Amino acid sequence: MKIGMLGAGDIARGVAKYALEQGHEVLLCNHSGPAKLAPIVTELGPGARAGSRAEVGAAEVVLLAVPWESIRDALTGLPAWNGRILIDATNPFLNPQHLNVLDDLGGRISSEIVADLAPGARLVKAFNTMFATNLAEGPRPRAGTRRVLFVSGDDEAAKTTVTNLIESFGFATIDLGDLKVGGRMQQAKTAPLAGPDFLLPD
Ligand SMILES: NC(=O)c1ccc[n+]([C@@H]2O[C@H](COP(=O)([O-])OP(=O)(O)OC[C@H]3O[C@@H](n4cnc5c(N)ncnc54)[C@H](OP(=O)(O)O)[C@@H]3O)[C@@H](O)[C@H]2O)c1
Q1: With bands split at pLDDT 50, 70 and 90, how would you rate the model's confidence at 50?
Q2: Which residues 6+ apart lie within 8 Å of 71 measured at CB?
Q3: What pLDDT does residue 184 have?
Q4: Phi, psi torsion values for 70, nearest 5 degrees
Q5: Which of 48, 88, 100, 169 has its CA 20 to 30 A from that of 131?
């Protein structure tokens, strides 16, 4: 698959590494431009390349991995989604350096707000629950166990695509259901699943 990364930070790079290992093509963009992006693409190696935000956003699967304050900028003006898959890895922290203040979402789930900014996308919430350090360390911190990534979303086929992708990386997945229920369970801070390092036995 061609996988677009909106963002080229810790989460996007972590996911990109596994996607490349599985033979996928990875396209990345950032906010500050090519000077910062070029070494990241070089380090990721063959199969990775920098693209414009529009090119990244046209991929068949797109990962949103930008700070919460940037979701609108990152998703505005992209090609029509037409059912392409958007993986939402974001958490609604107002200051990513201090994970104690959440945006006031008025009782909504953060991925619902993201979905509103990407009309026509099939959104799957994933990768938001695992610290980037654990993602980078890999799926098997101890023999006989696999790290768990939670997924939720309203489109079963999209969720299957994302689940298969994650499992191909070596991680275990737990499907929490649709966004209304699962998305709320995955929500940072307000639910217990984001942050802890869950392992499943093989
Ligand atoms: N870090 C974690 O442990 C962790 C775990 C789970 C989920 N998350 C969530 O995942 C998201 C990304 O986190 P991160 O740690 O990967 O952040 P990060 O390392 O700070 O990287 C953020 C990336 O987003 C890019 N960016 C900012 N605005 C953009 C825009 N308008 N268009 C395109 N790219 C843009 C930045 O580009 P520049 O570098 O050019 O500014 C940077 O490459 C956040 O919502 C965070 O809450 C983080």
Answers
A1: very high
A2: 64, 90, 113, 114, 117
A3: 95
A4: -105, 5
A5: 48
